[in-house]
Give the backbone structure.
Amino acid sequence: MTTRFDAIVIGTGQAGPALAARLSTASMRVAVIERKYFGGTCVNTGCIPTKTLVASAYAAYLARRAAEYGVTIGGTIGVDMKQVKARKDEIAGHSNKGVEGWMRGLKNGTVYHGHARFEGPRTVRVNDEILEAEKVFINVGGRALVPPMPGLEQVPFLTNSSMMEVDFLPEHLVIVGGSYIGLEFGQMYRRFGSNVTIVEKAPRLIAHEDEDISVAIQEILEKEGIRIRLNAECITARRAGEGIVVGLDCADASREVEGSHLLLAVGRVPNTDDLGLDKAGVETDSAGYIKVDEQLRTNVPGIWALGDCNRRGAFTHTSYNDYEIVAANLLDNDPRKVSDRILAYALFVDPPLGRAGMTEAQVRTSGRKALVGTRPMSRVSRAVEKGETQGFMKVIVDAETKLILGAAILGVTGDEVVHVLLDVMYAKAPYTTVSRAMHIHPTVSELLPTLLQDLRPLQ
Ligand SMILES: Cc1cc2nc3c(=O)[nH]c(=O)nc-3n(C[C@H](O)[C@H](O)[C@H](O)COP(=O)(O)OP(=O)(O)OC[C@H]3O[C@@H](n4cnc5c(N)ncnc54)[C@H](O)[C@@H]3O)c2cc1C
């Protein structure tokens, strides 16, 4: 039997639910299909649980430093991993239930729990049912990449998803991948009490950030006792008793790391391989990401792709912004487009890195004349008062237009402070808007005007 709708939403990540709600409010009959956990990656295995765990790790870290603040804690600091996981489950579970309840409560909505597959450009099968609609929105997200690493098939390994079930302290966690996910898990587990080694193929961590950022973050992590092994160009894995061994160099067997558990954090792949896209005629790139235009339309009229699966972003906020773009074009006669947005994200190690716009390397490559301002967090009074002085701020400005081109705020509350600059960038206002502003004392943001009053040419 075929059931007809006005719209079908496949996947309940960060774009699908909000879009389904908007469509339903616009009196469209909407089918929402989710194959696993409502809320997708961010809610269940990504942002929310990891930032909840990061908060537990921070509490342990600060408790160990209590004496520095004149605070006495009797006895040693312990971490109850079952309780840490229970807190994470409670917070993530609340969001997951919230999304499910929201979708099931939609006035014109019908929820299907099962794997969706296209049977044609307007036809989707879920379980034994066939659904049809003039409009189909794909929000299927991605999953952890499991690379073709020699030996991996004989070795137990964890990914960001299976890490969510860990309620014990790994003795020595070896993490392959020195980018966002690997670094967040690495610092978190070190603070819980594990030995941690991060193995990275590139010559530096988070290699697409500027080198000064990579170096500063490496120093921050190493200071906490995390071991970092770079230039691991040929990574292998094998079992060693109860544990694992990760080889770093196929030509030199002595370069290896032995640990108790292995976490793979080497990237993501889109969930598009089992979606029947070929039956709908939807084009993908060579890595399986769905090709879209500026309004997130695929090559097939009536089919849109939103979120991580379209390669136009890899964050919760980019996915949600995708929803806003599609809804604005479809329902509000507002021609918003992907290129309206400015790249912005954070790395939630402690202290966090808040990033907006271009890196220094990108500005240099662009060849434009630029000015740069930097300031170590050790010269930010609020950071000193808080006893959290690691990191630095860097802002780059176009020398001719005076527009802010990019910023990196690595330091306490850097993930929040960067928004001061981001909003000025959206306003297309000159940097003098900030440099002449009076900010509140004592805050980290109060040093942004000072920093911008002291720009020098980018050599
Ligand atoms: C460890 C980790 C930490 C992260 N931390 C952050 C962070 O701090 N900040 C941030 O901005 N981003 C973070 N991200 C990225 C963020 O989680 C994603 O960018 C975000 O979830 C957007 O994803 P999405 O909307 O594309 O889809 P997803 O959230 O991936 O959801 C897709 C949904 O579609 C469902 N689905 C897939 N295929 C089908 C099918 N065929 N039929 C039916 N349903 C299907 C899936 O089950 C899933 O529920 C993190 C990611 C990870 C892995």
